[in-house]
Design goal:
This protein has 132 residues and is of the alpha+beta class. 30% of the residues lie in helices and 32% in strands. The protein is built from three helices and six strands; from the N terminus they run E-E-E-E-E-E-H-H-H. The strands form two sheets. Strands 1-4-5-6 form a four-stranded antiparallel sheet, with helices on one face. Strand 2 and strand 3 form a beta hairpin. It starts with a strand and ends in a 5-residue tail after the last helix.
Amino acid sequence: MNAMKTTHKTYDFAYPFSLDGRVQSFLPGRYSIGIEEELSSGSEPLDFRRVKSRLYHTPNSGVPIEMGVIGIDPDDFDRAALQDGVRVLRDLHNEESVLRVSAFDRFAIERGENEGMSVTRREVEVAGSSVD
């Protein structure tokens, strides 16, 4: 009997995403991938090979549900998570982010400017990350 190991990765997707080789796309939300690997016999150093992987979605109920997608490539999951993260960062740093400054932060900026303090665009963008 070969030794087995299972690894889990979880990511909260902000946008719909797809995985390579799959027609279906997945809605935003929390997804986990379970990766089962088996120790290759007689290998030095230790070498594991992937046996199967499963995708799980955790809806608002908090109970993970297996998506029925078996055999997905964990690298595809990582790639989709990275692409989602890039989109989130773009949203935080686009021109509209200045418009999403909270009322409290807007008041503080205006008050500072009225007292003769200069506020740079970068400071406004950083303040814009705290959305109402």
